[in-house]
Amino acid sequence: xxxxxxxxxxxxxxxxxxxxxxxxxxxxxxxxxxxxxxxxxxxxxxxxxxxxxxxxxxxxxxxxxxxxxxxxxxxxxxxxxxxxxxxxxxxxxxxxxxxxxxxxxxxxxxxxxxxxxxxxxxxxxxxxxxxxxxxxxxxxxxxxxxxxxxxxxxxxxxxxxxxxxxxxxxxxxxxxxxxxxxxxxxxxxxxxxxxxxxxxxxxxxxxxxxxxxxxxxxxxxxxxxxxxxxxxxxxxxxxxxxxxxxxxxxxxxxxxxxxxxxxxxxxxxxxxxxxxxxxxxxxxxxxxxxxxxxxxxxxxxxxxxxxxxxxxxxxxxxxxxxxxxxxxxxxxxxxxxxxxxxxxxxxxxxxxxxxxxxxxxxxxxxxxxxxxxxxxxxxxxxxxxxxxxxxxxxxxxxxxxxxxxxxxxxxxxxxxxxxxxxxxxxxxxxxxxxxxxx
Length: 438
Description:
It is a single chain. This protein is 35% helix and 25% strand. By secondary structure, the protein is an alpha/beta fold. It has 3 domains: 4-127, Rossmann fold, CATH 3.40.50.720; 150-297, Dihydrodipicolinate Reductase, domain 2 (2-Layer Sandwich); 349-432, 2-Layer Sandwich (Alpha-Beta Plaits). Strands 7, 8, 9, 10, 11, 12, 13, 14, 15, 16 and 17 form an 11-stranded mixed beta sheet that branches. Strand 9 and strand 10 (259-269) form a beta hairpin. The chain is elongated and about 80 Å long.
């Protein structure tokens, strides 16, 4: 059987690792795929930089369109990232009848609907396991391994940079800015860390997971997104005293009213397995009606883990390259004509519990005023932790945990509490999830 020929777009960290793994593990990969797989052409901005050692037989060009228009190429591997020229390159590859493997979560989250529609028309595959959680096979697990199940919820630590920062804040008592600078020095965070620390990267990934889990169109703009830059060291400490850990979670949940899609800092009971996922590691908890809860843990980034997922996709495409398009695994797990529009709940309608921290005057009657407001908004208090002020200080810190309520109730209560003369500064709020399948 003739070899499957690949065209590689981007020879950066992941691209170079992909080329090396394909070379070094060629025999094992061929045993699994049923035929040999080889890169015949690659593109990178600086041709002078060359290919990784031992991959000198690969033709290297500076124009990526040469690769997607090469009639010898069967599968295009897109590892450039970003929106452009990645979108034009992928659409051109599809127009040329080539299959596509990509690790580009932003591209899939924002343009996946049009990409998949075009791929369906042309009878080619577009696969993207490496776009979510690095080397963890979470897309394949939901799309294929859990295909007999009704997926109820997905909750995950899907950005390693944010998880590293929160772990350091908890374990070493460091503040956010200090740890962020170290994450940049270590290469975990970019010079502009906005996508990581403000939740945009996680929102891209959650958008993809939601579509595969629930059979809905990709809707990145509908994901409520909140970062970790407003998490303070004292919140991490107080959460620990209450038996919780703060994690930056992406949560997608099916409810009777619609689908929740939200990314935000979250208090999780410290005994939950996912609460103990630390450093740059990723984990995704899937709640399914027949299997129940299952947790997928591993390296969410890095050259070799991401290359592992990219090559697994290449092998999948190689196995089915001669299969009728109608008999392949659908791009978003459900057959294209079975993708349905289910309402996406606005964050104000989401129900969850809350952690509140506020600075108040240390005098009689203050707690009564605050609890009255909570009662007026039908909010039940689960626990209260009051930190007495030091000698000579007239303000105390109050920590509250509420029971599960609608977000709008909490918004109204916070607005009223903030308006009290005895409350100083803002009321800090972090959502709480038990992740017990409720």
